[in-house]
Design brief:
alpha/beta; six-stranded mixed beta sheet; four-stranded antiparallel beta sheet; 14 strands; binds adenosine-5'-triphosphate; membrane; ATP-binding cassette domain-containing protein; P-loop_NTPase; amino-acid transport
């Protein structure tokens, strides 16, 4: 588990203005053990600085960083070096050594830790298997694709059995198919090894695919933070706007009068599959889908629809859906009955 409390980091000045740059401004967040946190936000928001502080590559001005309960900021010397070994880092960009094979790159941290050769060989084989690149052991980075190089970088970061894995833009510059193979490996680190993963990304597809939690940074501050499936249900949240289908372009149905128009977010198989037709049948109302659609967050189906209800018991049908965990937001009904 990673806990960040009131983390603040300024850099002396930025070259253009010569004023101090506040890269992180009182940032607090938590990543539960074995969860994947996606850290997103615009360029310059402080995402990399946050990852570098947690990796102990940058010392914050203020605040605490606890990994499994130990405050890392307070550590020095040998204790700091030992703590670093519990944090695996996949750096931004191409980070493999060109003159070493894939296996040689994965072995680096094990050599540095003084692991004897026979154990090293079997650990490297395990790691190559984990990232699905056993056959690339003798291959040099130049002969690997961008996605394969990133998977080797993940294997290297996991070599010393860290409890935490930090990946800074692990999929930038990769095409969608290759991105998927890298995300599968990060997901496997969590599911098979129980590692807590923090992924810095500008790509919401990464959050959609593997994140349990998400933190949105802007100007060095956390502006949204929580479980992805909770945040998508919050109307108007940044996470909801970027991950769920749009409902704004709801086509008006001429001459159809709705008694109630609402935006509904449904999370999970049961809700997505059955809630709307069941509500309509149970309360004898006409239910029209005016816009929106279905998507998937990780393994969970999520739908966002704008619906129109017609019939005496429309209000009761809506309340029944809320009681069954549908996230409902009423929208005004215009003269012709369609959402304004
Ligand atoms: N070593 C440094 N010296 C001076 N300023 C820095 C340094 N590192 C980061 N900054 C500044 O701190 C702010 C946050 O930068 P950071 O790289 O953490 O943002 P980011 O969200 O990761 O951006 P990007 O998505 O572009 O990588 C920026 O204004 C940046 O210019």
């Amino acid at each position: 588990m990673i806990t960040v409390e009131n983390l603040t980091k300024s850099f002396r000045h930025d070259q253009s203005s010569r004023s101090d740059v506040v890269a992180l401004d009182d940032v607090s967040l938590e990543v539960p053990a074995g969860a994947v946190l996606g850290v997103v936000g615009p360029s310059g928001a402080g995402k990399s600085t946050l990852a570098r502080c947690i990796a102990l590559l940058e010392k914050p001005d203020r605040g605490a960083i606890r990994v499994d309960g130990t405050d890392l900021v307070a550590l020095e010397g040998a204790a700091l070096r030992a703590a670093r070994r519990h944090i695996g880092v996949v750096p931004q960009g191409d980070s493999l050594l060109r003159q070493r094979t894939a296996a040689g790159n994965v072995a680096l941290p094990l050599e540095a830790a003084g692991m004897p050769a026979p154990q090293r060989r079997s650990r490297v084989a395990e790691l190559l298997d984990l990232v699905g690149l056993t056959d690339k052991a003798p291959t040099y980075p130049d002969r690997l694709s961008g996605g394969q190089r990133q998977r080797i970088a993940v294997a290297r970061a996991l070599a010393a059995k860290p409890s935490v894995l930090l990946a800074d833009e692990p999929t930038s510059a990769l095409d969608p198919g290759t991105t998927d193979s890298v995300l599968t490996v990060l997901d496997r680190a969590r599911s098979e090894l129980g590692v807590t993963v923090l992924v810095v990304t500008h790509d919401m597809a990464v959050v959609r695919r593997i994140a349990d939690d998400v933190a949105v940074l802007e100007g060095g501050r956390v502006v949204e933070h929580g479980k992805v499936l909770d945040l998508v249900a919050e109307p108007g949240s940044r996470v909801s706007t970027s991950l769920l289908p749009e409902t704004d372009q709801a086509p008006a149905v001429p001459g159809v009068r709705h008694d109630v128009v609402a935006e509904v977010v449904l999370v999970g198989f049961a809700a997505v599959g059955a809630l709307l037709p069941e509500a309509a049948a149970r309360f004898g109302v006409e239910l029209s889908i005016l816009g929106g659609g279905l998507t998937r967050l990780g393994d969970t189906p999520v739908a966002k629809f704008r619906i129109g209800l017609t019939g005496e018991r429309s209000e009761s049908a809506l309340k029944w859906m809320v009681d069954r965990d549908a996230h409902v937001r009423r929208t005004p009904v215009s003269v012709d009955g369609v959402a304004a």
